[in-house]
Amino acid sequence: MDILRGQLYLSPMQKNPTKIMDLATGIGIWAIEMGDRFPDATILGIDLSPIQPTSVPPNVSFQIDDVEDTWVHDDDYDFIHMRESCAYMRSTPTVIENAFHHLRPGGWLEIQEFHWEAVSENGTVMQDNPVNAYLREMYAYGQSEGREIPIVPKLGELMRQAGFVNIQKRMFKVPYGSWHSEPKQRRRGTYLAATCEILLPSCDRLLSTIGLSPEQIDTLFGDISAMFHEGTVQSYATYYVWSGQKPG
Ligand SMILES: C[S@@+](CC[C@H](N)C(=O)[O-])C[C@H]1O[C@@H](n2cnc3c(N)ncnc32)[C@H](O)[C@@H]1O
User: Fold this and answer.
1) N vs C: which end of the chain shows fewer Cβ within 10 Å?
2) What homologous superfamily does CATH list for 19-245?
3) How do residues 32-64 score in pLDDT, each as one tens digit?
4) Rounded to whole angstroms, what are the CA distances from 213 to 141, 177, 198, 220?
5) How many Å lie between the centroid of ligand 1 and the Cα of residue 48?
6) Given the CA of residue 82, which atom of ligand 1 is nearest to it?
C-alpha cells in the first residue's frame, strides 16, 4: 500500500543500529526488508505462527513465540517495531511494557497501525458510515471481552505509562475505496477496500455471537461493500505511526 512512501519506519533511530526486533512479524516482510537495508544489524522477527520464509538475508532470523509472554530476549535492542498487530493482542500494554524493558536506553519503539473509524476529509467521524456501524458492534464485543478498543489513538498514552519519552504521532489518511482523484491515494484506497472485503467475512461468526442475525450481518457487509464500490461516500481510515524512546 506504500503509505509511508517507501520508508520502513519513521522513528529517528540511530544511523547504524545493531539489534532490531519485529513483533508479530507475520510472513516477515518488514524484517526481511530491514535486513537488506541494514546488513550490519541483526533482525529478529517473532510470531506465534511459523509462516515465515526460510530463504532470508543472513542477518534475519525468526522465532516462534508469544510476545505477550515473559520475554527471554536480550535487553539491548536499538529498535523494536510492531505493525498491524494490536488487534490480535490480548493485552497491547503488556507488549509495550515488554518492549520497554528490552530496549537499550535511547532505543526506540515504533507501532504502525490502522485506526479503522471512517472519517471525512476534515477528520470528523461519520456516524452513519457503514464501516462505523460495523465498528460499533466490534467495540461492544471487545468491551464484553475486557479488551480496550479502539486502542490505536491511545497507544501514545500507553507508551507514556510504560516509561517512554519523546513520543511522536504521525497520521496518514487512506481512502476507503477508489474514489480519490489523486492516483496514489486512489491506489491505496482500492487496495484497502479489497483487503477489507477479504477480511470481513471472517468476522461473521463473531457478529452472530454478539446477537446479530444473518440478515443484519448481510446488510452490514452489503452496505460496506456498496460504499467501497460506488464511491459516493468519501471517507478515510487513518494509519497511525507512533514512536517512543526509552530514556537514555
Ligand atoms: C496482520 S499479521 C502481522 C503482519 C506483519 N506485522 C506485517 O506488517 O506484515 C498479525 C500477526 O500477529 C501474530 N500474533 C498474534 N498474536 C501474537 C502474539 N501474542 N505473539 C506473537 N505473534 C502474534 C499473528 O500470528 C499474525 O502473524
Assistant:
1) C
2) Vaccinia Virus protein VP39 (3.40.50.150)
3) 999 999 999 999 999 999 999 999 999 999 999
4) 15, 27, 21, 11
5) 7
6) 6
